[in-house]
Design goal:
Chain B: Belongs to the ABC transporter superfamily. The structure holds two protein chains of two kinds. Helix content of chain A is 33%, strand content 21%. By secondary structure, chain A is an alpha/beta fold. In chain A, the strands form three sheets. Chain A has an eight-stranded mixed sheet with strand order 8-9-10-5-11-12-14-13, with helices on both faces. A four-stranded antiparallel sheet of chain A has the order 4-1-6-7, with helices on one face. In chain A, strands 2-3 form a two-stranded antiparallel sheet. Chain B contains 13 helices and twelve strands. Chain B has helices spanning 46-53, 80-86, 98-101, 108-119, 124-137, 143-146, 156-168, 186-203, 214-220, 238-243, 248-255, 298-306, 322-338, and strands spanning 4-15, 18-30, 35-39, 61-70, 73-74, 91-94, 174-178, 206-211, 223-228, 231-237, 312-314, 317-319. Classes of the chains: A alpha/beta, B alpha/beta.
């Protein structure tokens, strides 16, 4: 039996241990080449022809577990690799190293065909609802397409029924079906994008900044919708965002990323009550709050280094107020803390900061 | 007299299907050195309000009525030549996207010198010295090296610092900042806002901050306007509005923030979305989404549907809402009877 048929027979069976994580990411690395093709990589230096390759190190060894029914939020600033994690999980990008396991099965090395059953079980919601809906398809067509793809044996009536059900469940009026994406506002489009993700009854949703492009009052509507869907359908979320207020509300656990590495993972309440990693602390202090007093904002030195030339040791060392020699030399790994989280920081490990 | 006094401003866009009114009866003022926030969702008219202050409304838009008095002169009646003196010199603007504002083919120094020489009769050397000083003010590391760099060589946060330096070049009285930190990360946003605040306080520069972020407004500004569908619906001291919003829309906006709800619970959403400007509901533009209208009695309810609400004063705030007006009326009568 080859890998393809094996995956096919296993996937629909869904025999799984409830305690095992739904998704496991093991040491995933993703590099993007900057140097073009082979000939462009050749450089003439000191009288010799040498081959030079430059890479963007988008993610450098990320380990994450996502438990069934939880919402794992990944936060970080632009360029920290959070979207790359989402795309790698979905199989839209191939990891340069490391493994992605879904429900006990390794999926990052599967063929396109073998991946199909998993594609039905995991769906994605994108940031920009203006770009993620095909402008030439009606809403009905948009919602039917994934069902046709994943259930080629369904009758047209059954497909129509499924579309009607999913539209009702996300609060889309039935008469929207004949209209096109441009006729709707951003919030309505995001509703349609969510409906499309839910149309094939997935169990796992990757949402990449799903509310960042929306207005405040609409953000609340869409977040409510995502939370309702989670309760009704028992969904598991991987939620990518830069908005910590949303994370505090929505997340079961939070992973904070910096420059392609996870620097802290903790249950949401724990992380917000007591951020351990110096970067997490700075990030938290930067949230503009409604309260009166001007915030005690922790100012970080300098800026995020480029992911092309990664700093040695801890990627945060150049900006960290607690840096010492070991931080500059040695890459910290995630260690468990006493309150249920994990943090990658030498200073926390050595007890230099609490 | 306030430094800037906007009265009954009415801005329209002449489209083939007729005029669309982007601003209706917008009035506000700004004292010297004061910081004012303009808050609203997309389509509320906050950017149009900012652009019209400098008469930067591009065709087919035009100012159809009202006045903008700046230092005693009406900007809407000014010649282009006189306006050019005000723009950049007395009032300058910071836009959302730093890459769109900076000229990619000129070095930072060239752009700054160009701006200075357009407004003042000075030598290039003097201009360069001023540019360098302004870059120092915005706390850019190694400012003299930056003068010869091009915009693409700087990070987003650095570019926004350069833009603030350019906005400050001619020592303006007012800076208008249109979503200055929306394109930036949280930590950078916090730094830029702190810098802007510090510079405004130091140089006694007025700030008009346009944003959708209530957190930023509450940290930076002293007074704020809330806009909805082309109108100002509530204005007053920032703290009072944030702590005790009167208008149902402002209340809804603040209550919809995730930080206002217990984690994991349902958020207090406002139903529906903002109407488009060419198809506004009758009466109060917010009434189809208003959660309080069902609780209003017959007369007030009819007023919400039929009449555009005028401003009533509640504490130090001014609110355009029939229901708030009715509530205040009811409170006022017993108070007088007691007396």
């Amino acid at each position: 039996m080859n890998a393809t048929t094996q995956a096919k027979t296993q996937a629909p069976a869904q025999v799984s241990d409830a305690a095992a994580p739904l998704l496991e990411i093991r040491g995933v690395v993703k590099r993007f080449s900057l140097s073009g093709d082979f000939l462009e990589q050749l450089k003439f230096k000191r009288g010799r022809i040498v081959r030079e390759q430059k890479h963007v190190h988008a993610i450098n060894g990320v380990d994450l577990d996502i438990q069934r029914g939880e919402a794992l939020c990944v936060v970080g600033e632009s360029g920290c690799g959070k979207s790359t994690v989402a795309r790698t999980v979905m199989g839209l990008l191939h990891p340069s190293a490391g493994e992605v396991h879904y429900d006990g099965q390794r999926i990052d090395d599967l063929s396109h065909k073998a991946l199909m059953p998993y594609r039905r079980r995991m769906q994605m919601i994108f940031q920009n609802p203006y770009a993620s809906l095909n402008p030439r398809m009606t809403i009905q067509q948009t919602l039917e397409e994934p069902i046709r793809l994943h259930h080629p044996d369904w009758t047209p009536q059954r497909i129509k029924q499924q579309v009607a059900d999913v539209m009702a469940s996300v609060g889309i009026a039935a008469d929207w079906g004949g209209r096109y994406g441009h006729e709707f506002s951003g919030g309505q489009r995001q509703r349609i994008a969510i409906a499309r993700a839910l149309a094939v009854d997935p169990e796992f949703i990757v949402a990449d900044e799903p509310i960042s492009a929306l207005d405040v009052s609409i953000q609340a509507q869409v977040l409510n919708l995502l939370m309702e869907a989670q309760q009704q359908r028992n969904l598991t979320y991987l939620f990518i965002t830069h908005d910590l207020a949303v994370v505090e509300h929505f997340g079961t656990r939070v992973a904070v990323m910096y420059l392609g590495r996870v620097c802290e993972i903790a249950p949401t309440a724990t992380l917000f009550a007591r951020p351990r990693h110096p970067y997490t602390q700075a990030l938290m202090s930067a949230i503009p709050r409604l309260e009166d007093d001007r915030p005690q904002h922790i100012r970080l030195e300098g800026e995020v280094p480029t992911p092309v030339d990664l700093p040695s040791g801890c990627v945060f060392h150049g900006r960290c107020p607690h840096v010492n020699d070991r931080c500059r030399r040695e890459i910290p790994s995630l260690i468990a803390t006493d309150d249920g989280g994990q943090v990658a920081c030498h200073a926390v490990e050595e007890g230099r900061i609490d | 007299m306030p430094l800037l006094d906007v009265n009954h401003l009415d801005v329209r866009f002449a489209l083939r299907r007729g005029d669309v009114q982007a601003l209706r009866d917008v009035s506000f003022s700004l004292e010297r050195g004061e910081r004012l926030g303009i808050v609203g969702e997309s389509g509320a008219g906050k950017s149009v309000a900012a652009f019209s202050l400098l008469n930067l409304i591009a065709k087919p838009g035009y100012i159809a009525g009202g006045s903008i008095h700046f230092d005693g002169q009406d900007l809407t009646q000014m010649s282009d030549r006189a306006l050019r003196h005000v723009r950049g010199h007395r009032m300058s603007m910071i836009f959302q996207d730093p890459m769109m504002t900076l000229n990619p083919v000129l070095s930072i120094g060239e752009q700054m010198v160009e701006c200075l020489k357009a407004h003042r009769r000075i030598s290039s050397r003097e201009a360069r010295a001023i540019a360098l000083r302004k870059l120092e003010h915005v706390q850019i590391p190694s400012p003299s090296a930056r003068l010869d760099q091009y915009p693409h060589e700087l990070s987003g946060g650095m570019r926004q610092r350069v833009i603030i330096a350019i906005a400050l070049l001619l020592d303006p009285d007012i800076i208008i900042a249109d979503e200055p930190t929306t394109a930036l990360d949280v930590t950078i946003q916090a730094e830029i806002m702190a810098l802007l605040l510090e510079l405004c306080e130091q140089h006694n520069v007025g700030l008009i901050l346009i944003t959708h972020d209530l957190g930023v407004v509450s940290q930076v500004t002293q007074r704020m306007l809330v806009m909805y569908a082309g109108r100002v619906i509530e204005q007053g001291p920032t703290r009072e509005i944030i702590n005790d919003p009167q208008h149902p829309y402002t209340q809804g906006l603040i209550n919809a923030l995730p930080q206002m709800a217990t984690p994991g619970s349902r958020l207090n959403q406002i139903p529906g979305s903002m109407p488009s400007l060419d198809n506004l509901p009758t009466g109060c533009a917010f009434h189809p989404r208003c959660g309080f209208i069902d609780r209003a009695d017959g007369t007030t309810r009819r007023a919400c549907i039929d009449e555009v609400p005028g401003f009533v004063t509640s504490g130090n705030c001014r609110v355009a809402c029939h229901m708030v007006a009715e509530m205040l009326e009811r409170e006022r009568i017993p108070a007088e009877e007691i007396r």
